[in-house]
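Bug #2210: token dump truncated for Endoribonuclease YbeY?
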Amino acid sequence: MPPIQVEVIVQNYFAEQAAEQEATEREAAEPDTSAGIQSPAIELATWESWFERWLEALDPKLSPIQAYELSLRLTDDAEIQSLNAQYRQTDQPTDVLAFAALEVESALPAAAQLEMPLYLGDIVISVETAQVQAAQHGHELRQELAWLAAHALLHLLGWDHPDKASLLEMLQQQQALLETIGETVGETIGCSSSYYQDDYQDEKQNDKTDGASLSIHS
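Reproduced locally. Full output below:
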């Protein structure tokens, strides 16, 4: 069996904003709402390494060539609130959204599966909310982003948490995934459903819109 390979398409809202400001060589007419928000210094190679290790640990056996692809967008509260309102009819920011492609797309033909990576879906993380949550729980932004990305990956692979018991199981799996990359958010978070105390209620309200399966965590 070949080693798992993951291609991650990372879109960084803050890098896009900086490039746009540099190109226009002028200040935005409105106040910069992203001021004070850290642009996460996590390289693409690091993200891909994390997802590869997580998929190796989970061993989903979904791709015959062990090749996967997903997209990751790092954004702010305003953009994720817009997506949350559009796809879940909840007009407020959240920390992470997961659009699971496997639930809505038909399987690739057998020949294509031997040549193309399997697309798992899209992950959107609000760095603004992640920064607040990291401060609340006493760890670094890097750890919070890893925690949220691991949670979203589980949703892309079909994990759900309609009740507290399944949520606790999912959080414990997240903790195990973070340990594979040498990160931790602390036992009190990884083993307590209070970290996402309202998630199991959110799960009951999930909508499937425009062919996307959306999991919301706030």
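Output looks complete on our side. The chain has a mean pLDDT of 80. Marking as cannot-reproduce; reopen if the truncation happens again.
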